[in-house]
Write a structure and sequence with these properties.
With about 140 residues, the protein is an alpha/beta fold. The protein has one domain. Strands 1, 2, 3, 4, 5, 6, 7, 8, 9, 10, 11 and 12 form a 12-stranded parallel sheet that branches. The chain is globular. About 25% of the residues are buried.
């Protein structure tokens, strides 16, 4: 499906098929099982959720994809990206942060909680280093 250059949408855009946007969308775009292509003339001011997102135009807002976000040459994203795979071409613009967790938004919270658990294995090396100064004191 294609949304032409002269089309302006304000609100929520939901669907269950691949979509190419050439016009303007403000609000929210949700195509969780499909590919969303932001055409070179498109201007998007929205939260975006899709399986894959290809950006050739301008996106202002956060982008979440279950597979991949691909910002192509001259594409622009001003917002945070959450996707297991992210590609940013030379000549593309990106301003925000990237979270490359392998699963959806919920795993990002779980992964954040698991980061302190990763620091626990660092404790045994600290104990080993505390024995080194004791040996150095002899």
């Amino acid at each position: 499906m294609n949304i032409g250059k002269s089309v302006v949408i304000k609100g929520e855009l939901n669907g269950s098929e691949d979509l190419t946007i050439e016009g303007q969308v403000e609000g929210k775009i949700e195509l969780r099982q499909n590919v969303l292509t932001i055409g070179p003339n498109a201007r998007i001011k929205a939260q975006v959720f899709a399986k894959s997102v290809i950006v050739l135009g301008e996106v202002t807002g956060n982008v979440a994809a279950s597979d991949k976000v691909d910002i192509r040459d001259n594409g622009s994203v001003d917002g945070d990206i959450a996707a297991p795979r992210v590609a940013i071409a030379e000549g593309a613009h990106f301003r925000g942060s990237i979270d490359m967790q392998r699963t959806g938004e919920k795993s990002g919270k779980a992964a954040a909680e698991s980061k302190p658990a990763e620091s626990k294995p660092a404790a045994p090396p600290q104990q080993a280093s505390s024995t080194a100064p004791a040996g150095a004191g002899r």
